[in-house]
Amino acid sequence: MPVRINLAAIDGGSNAIRLVIARAEPPRKIMILEAERYALRLGRHVFFDHQFDAPTITKAVKAFKHFRSLMDLYDVQTYRAVATSATREARNQRQFIDEIYKASRIRLEVIDPAEEARLVRCAVKASAAGKLSPRWIADLGGGSLEISRLQSGVLQESIALPFGTVRIMETFGISDVIAPEQIQLLRSYARSLLRRFLQRRDARQNDFAVTCGGNAEALALIANATSHGRMKTVDAETLRHLSRSLCALTIKERMRTFHIRKDRAEVIGIAAVILETVAQALGWQKLLVPGVGVREGILADLVRSLSKTNRARQARAHAEYLRESARRFAAKLMPDNRHAEKVAELAVSIFDQLQPVHKLGSHSRLTLELAALLHDLGHAVDLRSQERHSEYLVRHGDIPGLEPSRRNIMAHLIRWHGDADGLPSARTMQALSRKQQQHVQILLAVLRIAGALDWDRTQAVTRVRIRCNRKLARFDVRARRDCSVNLWTAQRRAVLFETVFDRKTSFVQVR
Fold first, then answer.
1. Which of 170, 73, 140, 158 is nearest to 293 (CA)?
2. How many CA atoms lie within 13 A of 321 on its CB side?
3. Which residue of 30, 85, 199, 464 has the fewest C-beta atoms within 10 A of its own C-beta?
4. Secondary structure in 3-state letters for 480-511
5. What kind of architecture, by CATH, is found in domain 112-292?
């Protein structure tokens, strides 16, 4: 990206709402400017009542108004705000989303579990920076647990289990100390869900998982986890001991002992039991905690999207620069270049209509257009061998921005565009790859027909519509006057077209 741009990502999770504002710099560097966590538990009561109560909506609106003020302060130019498990299950989600937008002008998007897991995978990939290729990625939230199984970086399976910390707390009525019988019930429930939904467990010795979510990060801090690159590492044995300790404490004791907030203290014991049980069932010996999640995945997505947009914008600007360079060069020799402009217009139209058949891209399209704009230059030198002179001028002329490989292909097209059935010699084609030679034949076939349709240089043809089936390409030509000679010339020059496209041709003037 040529300039810096400020981005924002909002994750409306079941246990809290989080905002991150970042600056994106070329090529894909992201610098965090602001990060906030609003302690609003959207999942409270939703997993049973299936709707947000009025106080929750009011608090959410307040949070998003605050986020909007921060986004305006940092001049955020693009953002994405998503909501996950709790909002997915709320019957009054439309009211919730509308009130947030009305108060903050932030559009909240409810995403499905697959998209949530994809965003987390994007965040992990960006964090690992190619140094780590995990087989498992787990994201534990307030409403669900998403698990992705990969092989050599390719997704094999992704599941979302209704096993989030807030959901479990309310389902099992856990309010303080977690009793041994409750722990056993949680473990049995987790194992049954894994057996039911995960098709292949294929546990390996010394396997590990990348684990995301606020609770996983908190557990890594409490356990004084070692570092694996930029990721904290918690081994399964440490997690088991920590799980027992956390479950035996009251909420106040957890807050005081581990210096954590109340909303975290309420669910962190449950999180430890869940992760310990899943690790044992799937053979994870270590849990790597990168400290990223949905928000970072959104940022990575936004930066990637901006990069693609910028590349497309640069490509369009470069194409326009080349067109203007070609037109300026032509104007020095041919002050009246209306014929070449018409041929270029027709050539591009034919190319576009036949794209499903030839499957060439925008690079070839521009090459064809430039060749059409410059194909007539030899007329200013000598009418008898104008193609040769045109080729020479294109090969050696001062056309700023025109790269050598494109110039070479254009020269081939211009040299042979006037023939009825001739092809560039094998000697001249040796400089081109086999793929380039095929492209030259396709573009030359199109250019010959486009040039023939304005053979009389009157620009009478206004439109060409191609009706194409497996055996025939019919050209319906609309013109301001009779153009039967042009159609006859096009039919003569269609020999190469019929060979390249494996179709007979027919040219018909229509009203």
1. 140
2. 10
3. 199
4. CCCCHHHHHHHHHCCHHHHHHHCCEEEEEEEC
5. 2-Layer Sandwich (3.30)
Check if CATH label 1.10.10.10 holds for domain 334-510: no
Our CA angle for 353, 354, 356, nearest 5°, is: 105
Q: What average pLDDT does the segment 421-450 reach?
A: 83
Q: Which range is least confidently modeled, 142-146, 246-250, 434-438, 487-491?
A: 434-438
Q: What is the pLDDT of residues 20-71, one digit of tens each?
A: 999 987 656 789 999 999 999 998 889 888 999 999 999 999 999 999 999 9
The CA distance from 111 to 235, in Å, is 32
Alpha carbon distance 341, 329 (integer Å): 14
Say whether 334-510 and 112-292 share the same fold. Answer: no
302: tokens are: 């936004």
- Rounded-to-integer distance, Cα 489 and Cα 474, Å: 15
Across 96-100, 334-338, 486-490, least confident range: 334-338
Written as six digits, the tokens of 473 are 């390409």
Is residue 42 a contact partner of residue 63, using CB atoms and an 8 Å limit? no
Please choose, from the candidates 477, 463, 509, the residue with its C-alpha nearest in 3D space to the C-alpha of residue 349: 463
Strands laid side by side in the 504-510 sheet:
461-468, 472-479, 504-510
The average confidence (pLDDT) of the chain is: 89
Proportion of the chain above pLDDT 90, given as a percent: 66
Apex CA 215: angle with CA 164 and CA 294, to 5°? 75
Q: For the domain bounded by 1-111, which CATH number is listed?
A: 3.30.420.40
Measured in degrees and rounded to the nearest 5, phi and psi for residue 249 equal: -95, 155
Q: What pLDDT, in 10s, does the model give residues 272-309?
A: 999 999 998 888 998 999 999 999 999 998 988 887 77
Identify the H or E element spanning 81.
strand 78-83
Long-range Cβ contact pairs of 44-51 (< 8 A, separation 24 or more): 44/166, 44/170, 45/170, 46/14, 46/86, 46/89, 46/90, 47/86, 47/89, 47/143, 47/166, 47/167, 47/170, 47/171, 48/170, 50/89, 50/90, 50/91, 51/90, 51/91, 51/92
> Are residues 284 and 209 in contact, defined by beta-carbon separation less than 8 angstroms?
yes
Q: Where are the domains of the chain?
A: 1-111, 112-292, 334-510
The answer to whether 375 and 414 have CB atoms below 8 angstroms apart is: yes
Interatomic CA distance for residues 366 and 374, integer angstroms: 12
The amino acid occupying position 485 is V
Phi, psi of 279 (to 5 degrees): -60, -45
pLDDT (average), residues 177-196 = 90
- 8 Å CB contact between 21 and 7: yes
Q: Hey, is 10 helix, strand or coil? A: strand
Q: Could you give the C-alpha distances from 509 to 135, 200, 420, 457, 492, in angstroms and in order?
A: 63, 64, 21, 17, 16
Q: Name the CA dihedral angle for 445, 416, 454, 381, rounded to a multiple of 10 degrees.
A: 160
pLDDT tens digit sequence for 355-397 = 999 999 999 999 999 999 999 888 777 767 788 888 899 999 9
